[in-house]
Amino acid sequence: MGTKGLVFNVQGYSVHDGPGIRTIVFLKGCPLGCQWCSNPESQNPNEEVGFNPARCLGLAKCQMCLKGCPYGAIVADDKGADYPTIKRSLCQKCPDYACRKACPAGALVVYGDFLEPLEVIKRVEKDEVFFQRGGGGLTVSGGEPLNQPDFLLDLLSLAHKRRLKTALETSGFGSYEVLKAAARVVENILYDVKVISRAKHLAGTGQDNELILDNLKRLTADFPKLSILVRTPVVPGFNDTSKDAQELGQFLRALPNVTFEALPYHRFGEGKYGFLGRTYPLAGLTLDPKALEDFNRLTLAARNL
Ligand code: SF4
Ligand code: SF4
Are 40 and 54 in the same domain? Predict the structure, then answer.
């Protein structure tokens, strides 16, 4: 037994989120609202129903979901499309998710399952054979994992007891005490710093970055030997100027025990916004690969001055 956590995905064979080959456990719920978020299903801290129209057989052939929902939350599209619409205000997240069960095509999905730490660890351990090379293991990501503190710490402690190597991927927007407790049992921390400008951070994520930057400074001071990789997604028009890179480099200069990586902005998650009845805020945006190189170079140059 243990505190249950709301998990929206367990994804094996990742090579980008910590050393070696990792299995990523994604926790649902995030206090930030980054406009470029590639996992929109991670943001809401509750279970959600998603609808993928590409899988739907069409209302002319099938109306199982309309008949299956006991609350009338699934209706025909009012613009005449041959597929249903979810009226989210009516959805009661009924215990067995009747819509998901009713759909013969897998077009209706539920994001979020309440799982115990042991259930999650057993899923992760199925991938153990991949962890042996390169020091792979479990990475807990989100959403923001610090947002589910009891489950996060139970999960990491159990993984530690079972000799799994662990990493935490965090935005740093959470309680320092939870971050510190997690840092005691993980081998690696992947820490997102979006931008140094407070005004830009607020505009792009909906939150101030003071807590994030303070938590990182405290973490590096308290755990000078812990492997901490600071990562910055380079988003065109948000944080890709030379001033942003220089400010970031200057901030990192005071943190000699962290490494740094600039990540390319991408739109892989764009389709999932539609599944949730939302519109992707940055439609049409692309990143020039040279902008990523320049950002990386300028950040490291400012850091090493
Ligand atoms: S979860 Fe239940 S209430 Fe919500 S849309 Fe599906 S069937 Fe209807
Ligand atoms: S039950 Fe599934 S396949 Fe049938 S109309 Fe609803 S979403 Fe489409």
Answer: no
